Structure to design on (770 residues):
């Protein structure tokens, strides 16, 4: 290693001496770009392996990534372009049947060839490449170089040595996989499913040259052990995989490259830089191989880092800008990768789906490919999936009817329950009439009230509505009469609940979950645990008499709701309110028959449900909203949520409304688009019961995708209906649909087309001179 300059590194300036730890694609490309931008730079790359040593076989790059490479370094782009194999199709083999979807546009090349191209470019530019040489520790390099780029992979020694600064979080997952190759080229991206006596196994395969393909074999850990792979050596595993997937391989052998069975690890770092050391690629973040993102992310990191170093006046500013630019992109990719990873972990849930629905489900698993996007790529494939659904001709999936007991909903859109905090003494007023009436006129199949409280003490805030007095019932009847009269075909449902330990708080906009300054009422809960110790009131634990009283309050409210002519009743057992407080082990610490085991924790919510089901008219449906996870250690698990749903379905629930969280204040939700839908998906495809999916579903394309994939039966949207009360009608107009699933009210029909706007485009020039 060159010795430090007399003056030492100058991190406040654009770096001239740069050390790169790791000779993978990301590290090499960063070195090449930084050298190309400033030829006077002294850049050294350390790689502990030989130049031709690499793990894995093929690399897939997107058009977006290639476009960035083309603009940044045409020499590298042209070299890559000459090597790529391209294809458009994805083949999905499901129980002996091959389903093909086209128009996807892949480009791949061998990983070894990619490294050769980058080696050549680095040498041509004057970057020093030191192979078979362990890099000095990053801390040592940091004293002699202006910038240290740690591109040392998923097992980054730099990251682990300085873990207190980078704050990594590394999560292992439930599948084992092995990276292999075959000496022939698939003509598509191929997914093959093997249902063996030991469990489900899957093959991911794609070509990376005219005569070679990457083959990844993956399965759950318990399947891997049951099949005896844990006792086989490398060649034994290779031969066994070739035998299991002989049909896909045409009875050809597989080969390895120091291949071993691995558990994928998702890497997340709180910080990407420390002093003048920065993480890049897998050292900073990983995303599951099933969306083909590892090399793509590393190359894009290199592009962004080089650009930020060039654009920013100081190194600290450059490293901050690099992370600011890349982190949102990486987090979005990681969310998509996590959805894809979990889909494959739960693959066995979907095997009984009809073949085309299974294929559509697989293609849209990451939520990046959607119904509308897939229609653009392959309209013929999407058409047959829709016909299988079945969608009437010209009808988007969201506008197909759905029946719950004696209630037929004209479409699959639900206006989700949203607390408005606008009642006085529990009495819904003009605001509620206009709020719910407007959304009923807006075209949704089902409009839900906010949580309607069964007693004054069961309110969350003084502004919450109730159904515990005759006056409240009369006010609600005014709302249901309006909906049935002015929006015929729209159903309206009531959600009944009790706040439990989360009651006696301020209106949301005055201080969410903050206790009232005065006028507090006593709280009741499963256990005497305040929502936030030292802040919220300590509730009293309900005794037998208290449980009976609250059960009777629910019964009285249900009786009134039936006479108010609500079409559907939902029991609120989510979000940390009273019944949810019995279900979660974090909030139920009872030692009697209502605490301890899940069966005991279910006992009181089921008692309430049974009473309501006995009162509620038999032809009208009942649903139950649950929190499928508490997003907190020791809380309700995804597996328990399935058992909770199973219990309510066995007692007569017609659908499960699957939400998550809001049970404890220290939860850590994994926010993102449609982030709660995997829990609904799991319940639906495990139990076969209808589910309502909810949680950051924001577009009609998402709704169509979830329905066609069989992940949900109904989709509940909240914020989109606050933004646009006519969200459903506008979704129909934007899709060119005008059928019975979304009729416009007669007074509004003139607005069923988007109003014209001023012209914003200008005539194109007739001639362009270069």
């Amino acid at each position: 290693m060159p010795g430090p300059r007399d003056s030492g590194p100058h991190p406040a300036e654009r770096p001239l001496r740069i050390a790169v730890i790791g000779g993978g694609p990301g590290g090499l490309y960063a070195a090449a770009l930084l050298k190309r931008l400033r030829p006077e730079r002294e850049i050294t790359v350390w790689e502990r392996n030989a130049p031709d040593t690499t793990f894995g076989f093929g690399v897939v790059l997107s058009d977006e990534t290639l476009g960035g490479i083309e603009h940044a370094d045409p020499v590298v782009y042209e070299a890559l372009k000459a090597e790529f194999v391209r294809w458009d199709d994805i083949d999905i083999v499901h129980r002996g049947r091959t389903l093909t979807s086209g128009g996807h546009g892949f480009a791949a090349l061998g990983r070894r060839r990619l490294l050769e191209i980058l080696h050549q470019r680095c040498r041509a530019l004057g970057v020093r490449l030191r192979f078979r040489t362990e890099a000095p520790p990053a801390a040592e390099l940091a004293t002699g170089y202006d910038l240290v780029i740690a591109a040392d992979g998923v097992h980054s020694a730099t990251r682990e040595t300085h873990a207190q600064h980078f704050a990594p979080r590394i999560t292992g997952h439930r599948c084992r996989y092995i990276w292999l190759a075959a000496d022939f080229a698939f003509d598509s991206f191929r997914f093959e499913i093997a249902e063996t006596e030991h469990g489900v196994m899957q093959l991911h395969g794609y070509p990376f040259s005219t005569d070679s393909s990457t083959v990844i074999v993956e399965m759950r850990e318990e399947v891997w052990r049951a099949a005896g792979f844990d006792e086989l050596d490398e060649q034994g595993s290779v031969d066994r995989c070739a035998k299991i997937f002989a049909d896909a391989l045409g009875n050809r052998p597989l080969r390895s490259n120091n291949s071993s069975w691995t558990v994928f690890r998702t890497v997340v770092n709180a910080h990407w830089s420390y002093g003048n050391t920065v993480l890049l690629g897998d050292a900073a973040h990983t995303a599951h191989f099933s969306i083909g993102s590892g090399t793509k992310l590393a190359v894009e990191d290199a592009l962004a880092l080089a650009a930020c170093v060039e654009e920013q006046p100081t190194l600290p500013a450059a490293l901050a800008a690099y992370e600011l630019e890349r982190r949102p992109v990486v987090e979005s990719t990681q969310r998509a990768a996590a959805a894809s990873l979990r889909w494959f972990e739960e693959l066995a849930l979907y095997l009984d789906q009809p073949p085309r629905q299974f294929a559509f489900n697989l293609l849209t698993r990451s939520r990046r490919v959607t119904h509308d996007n897939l229609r653009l790529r392959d309209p013929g494939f999407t058409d047959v999936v829709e016909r299988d659904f079945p969608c009437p001709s010209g009808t988007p999936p969201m506008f197909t009817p759905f029946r719950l007991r004696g209630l037929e909903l004209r479409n699959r859109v639900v206006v989700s329950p949203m607390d408005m905090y606008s009642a006085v003494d529990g009495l819904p007023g003009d605001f509620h009439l206009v709020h719910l009436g407007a959304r009923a006129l807006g075209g949704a199949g089902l409009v839900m009230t906010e949580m309607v409280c069964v007693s004054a003490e069961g309110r969350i805030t003084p502004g919450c509505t109730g159904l515990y007095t005759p006056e409240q019932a009369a006010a609600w009847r005014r709302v249901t009469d309006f909906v049935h009269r002015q929006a015929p075909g729209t159903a309206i449902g009531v959600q009944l609940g009790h706040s439990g330990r989360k009651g006696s708080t301020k209106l949301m906009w005055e201080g969410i979950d903050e206790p009232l300054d005065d006028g507090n009422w006593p709280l009741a809960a499963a256990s005497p645990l305040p929502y936030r110790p030292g802040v919220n009131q300590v509730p009293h634990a309900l005794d037998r008499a208290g449980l009976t009283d609250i059960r009777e309050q629910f019964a009285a409210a249900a009786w009134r709701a039936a006479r108010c002519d609500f079409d559907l009743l939902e029991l609120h057992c989510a979000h940390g309110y009273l019944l949810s407080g019995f279900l979660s082990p974090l909030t139920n610490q009872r030692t009697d028959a209502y605490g301890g085991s899940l069966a005991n924790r279910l006992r009181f919510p089921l008692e309430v449900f049974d009473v309501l089901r006995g009162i509620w008219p038999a032809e009208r449906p009942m649903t139950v909203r649950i929190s499928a996870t508490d997003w907190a250690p020791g809380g309700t698990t995804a597996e328990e949520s399935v058992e909770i749903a199973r219990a309510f379905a066995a007692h007569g629930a017609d659908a499960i409304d699957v939400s998550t969280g809001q049970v404890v204040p220290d939860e850590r939700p994994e926010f993102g688009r449609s982030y709660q839908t995997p829990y609904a998906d799991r319940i639906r495809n495990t139990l076969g019961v209808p589910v309502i999916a909810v949680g950051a579903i924001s577009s009609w394309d998402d709704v169509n995708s979830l329905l066609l994939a069989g992940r949900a039966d109904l989709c509940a949207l909240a914020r989109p209906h606050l933004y646009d009360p006519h969200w459903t009608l506008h979704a129909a107009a934007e899709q060119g649909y005008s059928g019975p699933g979304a009729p416009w009210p007669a007074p509004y029909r003139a607005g069923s087309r988007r109003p014209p706007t001023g012209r914003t485009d200008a005539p194109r020039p007739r001639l362009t001179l270069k």
Notes: Residues 353 and 683 are 14 Å apart (CA to CA).
